Amino acid sequence: MMGTKKMIWLGLFLTLCSVGTGLSQTSEKLTLADIYKNGKFQQKGFGPVRWMKDNKGYSTLERNTAIGGNDIVKYDAKTGKRSLLVSAADLVPPQKDKPLVVKDYTWSDDNSKLLIFTNTRKVWRYHTRGDYWVLDLKTKKLGQLGKTLPEASLMFAKFSPDGSRVGFVSHLNIYVEDVESHEMKQLTYDGGGNIINGTFDWVYEEELSCRDGFRWSPDGEHIAYWQSDTEGVGTFYMINNIDSIYSRPIPMPYPKVGTTLSAVKVGVIPSNGGKTKWFDIPGDPRNNYLARMDFIPNSNELMIQQLNRPQNTNKVYIANIENLKLTNILTEKDEAFLDIHEDIRWLEGEKYFTWSSERDGWLHLYKVSRDGKEIEPITKGEFDVVKINCIDTRGGYVYYIASPDNYTQRYLYRSRIDGKGEAERITPVSDSGQSDYLISGNAKWAVQTFQNSLTPPRYSLVSLPRHKQVRILEDNKELKQKYDALGLRPKEFVKVDIGDDVLDAYMIKPVDFDPSKKYPLLFYVYGEPAGATVQDNWNGGSLWDQYMAQQGYVVMSVDNRGTKTPRGREWRKSIYGQIGILASEDQSKAAKKILADYPFLDPERVGIWGWSGGGQMTLNCMFRYPEIYKSGLALAFVSDQRLYDATYQERYMGLLPDNGQGYYNGSPINFAQNLEGNLMIIHGTADDNVHYQSFEMLVDRLIEKDKIFDMMTYPMRSHSIRERKNTSYHLRRTMENFWLEKLPAGGK
After folding, report:
1. Three-state SS for 594?
2. Which residue of 268, 420, 589, 671 sits 20 to 30 Å from the alpha carbon of 120, by its own alpha carbon?
3. In this predicted model, what pLDDT tens digit does every residue of 276-289 receive, in sequence order?
């Protein structure tokens, strides 16, 4: 749903002849221990890569085998020549004998200084808190920032435009430090308690992807930042019962559906210290979101995006930091909901900017004048622009990811910035699957990441626009060999016509499949607007699906209407106001159609499972269509939509007073009395995203309705249920045991 929102991506139309059709006598057997305990199938990444400012080469990390740690090296894109930029020896702090562990790094604008993020800590989802160090490449001087502040308390450090200072957040206040003298100046003092400066509360981070909450002005004279006031926001308490002889409550401000939101505002403060000036943005700050804010290049103006509470209106303001004047230049509206898009680039001396919109029924990129009066399409056609990768103003092209003909795949295209001509596909036909690109600023070079459901990520350097492969950077060859040695059946990708629409689906058959027999059918489901399951990418080899198929199940997944696929606005917005209702109906129709079309499937052995939003969907399918689904397993689910956070749920369901019946009908707890089959529910007690409360309320209702079910609780595990020793392995064994007992495997 919700939450981690990391969906299982799979793919489309792969031929069976590309791999073996079954498990041979010489094939190795896939085991849960190898997947979840032994790390046998871990994939290699590449990077992190940073294109140098001259666009002639890129930097990356490489292991220093002599002293440990990582060197930062540069590769010339054209020749492949390697040069050492920073040795791990340069990253050994004074009085220490080991180099810093580089979790991330950033170059100053002139490439003369390096900012290193290390000793990191997780804040809810990601490691955004830790220590920062600055290395001067000329003097080799290595200095720690915020040295007098508590360890690992710094967040979002970034160079000033001239590279002389670094701004950062610590304990909800903003600081600036000189990189030479290390003189540190505290800019804000009211952070703490209800006040959050320079970062965000839980719901802004989770649902609006807002984490880094301050910006340097282009001249380095000011810092603009968000401030959140969580007073009045309901506090939810998680309970730690296992790390002490007394329980410990863990409080977190968390606005549930219909309750008070944080009051958020934007202010500007001199970077040398002084008083904050606040913008008086129209509207109740507790019933609007300030979803995006950034400086317009080469100016003293900000662009601020304000979403209303239902998230169907986005007002764009130009805000002058000198006189605090606000000008509403653009208002985007939708009858359903709007997504925040990150695709703003300034063009032609900041006279125009790019803007993403679904106003013509497809998600496209537009060119908008600074005053908002001129709006012209850059991309056009019956397809969605999935992601903007590069805007090459000198060459006159925008490079982006799209997939007009196959919703499960992703390719690089380009269109002229002036809107003339047709979209041009750049990714070659041979790279069938999903590709993403990190493109140099001049659009001459790119690091391509290619994958599909049979191919782990392959990183290559390519030249653009002809897409000529220059060299392979990492191909995960060893992983591919291990995977192929298993002799597993590939995914088959099929279309399912449910009458209302044609849905994408995948199928994995047992390794010893016999079409004359009947097999149990196991559906994996998600079904919400935050993601999709049927995507042609690697996704770790989908080893859990493959493992279950190896046990004797036919495994399938279907993307119902409303899932996040590039099929146009109507597809995505169809689910508005009926989360859990439309999707479960589509899933049930798909199940009936699949059972009718494939005679080797046993209608008496149909199971369904899902995680988060997929857990909720599993419950809705089990409770609404008990005649279809005989067994279900729901993890980390929402049982009553009113229990989930306001920002996510209200975006897709509308406000509670306006759609009370929809909230009721979409919440599986209200239909628990219809349970007929076998049900197992699983939850972590430290789930900050979908609270354990949701689990307990459903347990209480099932008991009230005299329904027998299985349940498993994982103490102090989060939404991902993977923390602490042996958790992932134990979880999958528990899931496997349920299926083997309640949905007998194998052909009959």
Report:
1. helix
2. 268
3. 999 999 999 999 99
